[in-house]
Design a protein that fits this description.
CATH class: Alpha Beta
Organism: Rubricoccus marinus
Largest sheet: 2 strands, antiparallel
Protein name: Fe-S metabolism associated domain-containing protein
Number of strands: 4
Family: Belongs to the SufE family.
InterPro entries: Fe-S_metab-assoc_dom
Structural class: mainly alpha
Pfam family, one: SufE
Strand content: 5-15%
Shape: globular
Length: 140
Amino acid sequence: MTDRLREIIDEFQSAPDEFRVEMLLERARQFPPLPEKYRALREKGLGRVHECMAEVYFFPEVKDGAVRIHSDIPGEAPTQRALVGILMEAYDGASPEAVAQIPPDLLRQLGIAPLLGVQRQQGFSGIVSRLQHSIAEASS
């Protein structure tokens, strides 16, 4: 687990349950735009995570041993924007090995699993799997 992910988990765990939804929404509002160089690929439908009901597009890469995560998610999917934003913040610049060790119970550790339905939890699991697979391919 990266130090930044530990900090994010601590932030969520220290917040009251009713404030965690607002924390997610704030992260969704701060979601960065997709860099221009990936927009044509996104328009062609490449990089889509099909395991997720929301339109989630990932363009991860590895440069000089550091992971770079780029993504595009429409504003009407704030939960996935927030969750992917957490992954981007915690793992951008990390090693591929760190990405491979994303905790499988991350939503529980954040204290937000009870706030999400089964479909969103499964969608997030698909996002993490897709990210890990893409990074493993890019680093080999």
